[in-house]
Amino acid sequence: MEMMVPGLHRPFWLRKRYSQTQFDAVQTISDKKAGLHTVCEEACCPNIGECFSAATATFLILGNTCTRDCRFCAIHHGAPLNPDKGEPRRVANMVGEMGLKYAVITSVTRDDLEDGGASHFAETIREIYSLGRGIKVEVLIPDFAGKEAPLNTVLDAGPTVISHNVETVRRLYPAVRPGAIFERSIELLRRSKKIKPQIFVKSGFMLGLGETEKEVLELLVSLRGAGCDILTIGQYLPPRQDLFPVARYVHPEEFERYRVKGLEMGFTSVAAGPFVRSSYHASELI
């Protein structure tokens, strides 16, 4: 349940019902994960029932404890454990067991590691490719504290899509993402496209944090200028009451306007809507 502001009530387009089949799928996949984590569960994603029932999931590597404390995120923060060297192989085994043709891999931010966990990403990509089934891999990476070498490590492993979310407009970074820097995120996207132009570059952000239309349009310009190909825009829904408060609920028509605007600006694909998340229907966007 999200933190509310006086007079703000969740509208009908943000009500989602789950079938028994979806609940059963969540339980089944959760039981099978063999010590693995999914961002679907850790971040309390509202689409978990739909995605798990379709045998899709976004795997969370490098543990489930983040070294940063973003004000919109439910993932636990603190001092994480050392990387589990067996995790990349277990992720690949699960991808194979689920019969996935498109795998999405993300991680907590690991500022405690010299390479930010880049080598772990690369090993996970290689392990999945070793299955030999033509599986496509999308990686949603942290900013690696702006270091170039870790980004190169991930790019050299050859993911189909490299994604990094800006999450919100520039002005709101200090309040919403205190450990991140807007310009650093934009530069990571720009370098990704410059170094490996054949790899799709993707980003995403949320509406409902207090941004203005002018700021959103400026953000679209910044992302497209950085070479971003694929864009996702969703409604911010605080997963806990102690997190950043939702400022407003954005009408689906406004999401559609931004989707059309993004396509007019040259983005290859744009998914925009109240329940859109960065990895939601990810394979369809390429």
Please characterize this protein's 3D structure.
- The protein is of the alpha/beta class and 286 residues long.
- The chain has a single domain (20-285), classed as Aldolase class I (TIM Barrel, Alpha-Beta Barrel), CATH 3.20.20.
- The chain has helices spanning 20-32, 39-42, 48-53, 87-98, 118-129, 148-156, 173-176, 182-195, 213-225, 252-265, and strands at 37-38, 58-61, 102-107, 136-140, 161-163, 200-207, 230-235, 269-272.
- Strands 1-2-3-4-5-6-7-8 form an eight-stranded mixed beta sheet.
- Helix 5 links the parallel strand 3 (102-107) and strand 4 (136-140).
- Helix 4 runs parallel beside helix 5 (118-129).
- The longest helix has 14 residues, at 182-195.
- The relative contact order is 0.14.
- The model is unreliable at 1-6 (pLDDT under 50).
Give descriptors for this structure:
286 residues, alpha/beta, TIM Barrel, eight-stranded mixed β-sheet, 8 strands, 35% helix
How many E strands?
8
Number of domains: 1
CATH architecture heading:
Alpha-Beta Barrel
Q: Give the spatial strand order of the biggest sheet.
A: 1-2-3-4-5-6-7-8
Report the CATH C-level class. Answer: Alpha Beta
Shape: globular
Alpha-carbon Rg, integer: 18 Å
CATH fold-type name: TIM Barrel
The DSSP helix count reads: 10
Assess the beta-strand content as a share of residues: 5-15%
Q: Whole-Å distance between the termini?
A: 33 Å
> Structural class, please?
alpha/beta
The CATH H-level superfamily is: Aldolase class I
The averaged pLDDT comes out at 86
Q: What is the helix/strand order?
A: HEHHEHEHEHEHHEHEHE
Helix coverage percent: 25-40%
Low-confidence stretches: 1-6
